[in-house]
Amino acid sequence: xxxxxxEGMLLQASLIFALGPQNLFILESGLxxxxxxxxxxICFLCDLTLIMFGVVGAATLFNQYPQxxxxxxxxxxxxxLLYGLNKIxxxxxxxxxxxxxxxxxxxxxxxxxxxxxVINPHAYLDGIVLIGGYSSKFPDLTNRMALGLGAASFSLxxxxxxxxxxxxxxxxxxxxxxxxVMMCCAGFMLLFLSARLSIDVYSWIIELYPDTMATFTx
Length: 218
Hints:
This protein is mostly helical. The chain has helices spanning 2-16, 21-32, 36-64, 66-88, 106-118, 121-134, 141-164, 166-174, 176-208, 210-216. The chain has one domain (2-93, 104-216). It has ten helices and no strands.
């Protein structure tokens, strides 16, 4: 169980290291000290909801339809492979953090956190398709939940690091060499996870279609 939890953290770690709109919003909130802890917690709750929806939904669907499990597993392999290669080929893009010193209201901070977390196609791709699809390798719902909780836990840890340590982290994000090293490490982690999922998907295919696979391997 503990190993699966750590695997979920590793998967989310490799997905979340990016200069996406959500990360930049949390960084800005931390730099400006604009309800940054509330922002981090709301973003975490949004990630947790999407991840658990993907994990629990995948569990029910895949138990009833193993063909869908294989299909989503293949999609997960492709997405992990594509994500990994994109991160390895990452080229630094300039970005700006506003220097507005004004204090935004709590309600606006909450609404903005939800918007940056939910109105974002990558949030659904990461939480539901990638993590939900990757969880299909575990037949037991408890193990899927452990993977999802591990992934969500890393989201919370990462968001707190971004918001509380924003001032210290900005030189890392603004240094092209350091940022590229971080992206490459995340990319290789994704490629490793893609390879592991490929082995699992192959075993599912053999289990579901033993006669067909025996014909191909002759």
